[in-house]
């Protein structure tokens, strides 16, 4: 009986899994494109560094903190007009990925900043004294030295996005969360609820293992 229910659920589960991966993938891509440079900017404009700028540091930091302080479910609803304008719909995985991306940018930016702070400032000071340009310092010192932390941070961001995507399913965002709500909660189907929980646990464990493996592989320390 239990196995039969799972077999019947497979088509919907497969679609929900693909929708979740789509949402998380878009969120991670946007986090890399926008969150990574934002995090680097937060670091290099800090006091005592080669691009010190109190105004830029304060403005970017305030934006990051403002977005991070909003609970995701509220952010999801708040961004509905923007989502409608951007993708012409407020339901489905593509619409949910808008809010996921907005949440991922400041989340990953802070992780990037934290990873960069672990770099020995003496190395950066030596590069500045040698006349290296800011871009050269960022490209040849900050990125290579912070690479393990950046990968670990991306892993943490991906896992957080999986949780957010499940939450987005409660408002028609699609994915595994939507499947759990529609079948597991509204129809009181324990099999669906149990299966979706197991899938999420396995997915998170796989991403964590892969992220840890890559982070260790690129760590030259």
UniProtKB/TrEMBL annotation:
Pfam families: BPD_transp_1 (PF00528). The chain crosses the membrane at residues 20-43, 55-80, 92-111, 149-171, 191-211. It comes from the Bacteria. GO terms for cellular component: plasma membrane. GO terms for biological process: D-methionine transmembrane transport. Keywords: Cell membrane, Membrane, Transmembrane, Transmembrane helix, Transport. It is found in: Cell membrane. SUPFAM superfamilies: MetI-like (SSF161098). It is a multi-pass membrane protein. Residues 17-211 form the ABC transmembrane type-1 domain. Its main location: membrane. Belongs to the binding-protein-dependent transport system permease family. CysTW subfamily. PANTHER family: ABC TRANSPORTER PERMEASE, D-METHIONINE TRANSPORT SYSTEM PERMEASE PROTEIN METI-RELATED. NCBIfam families: PRK10782.1. This is Methionine ABC transporter permease MetI. It comes from Ornithinibacillus caprae. The gene is metI.
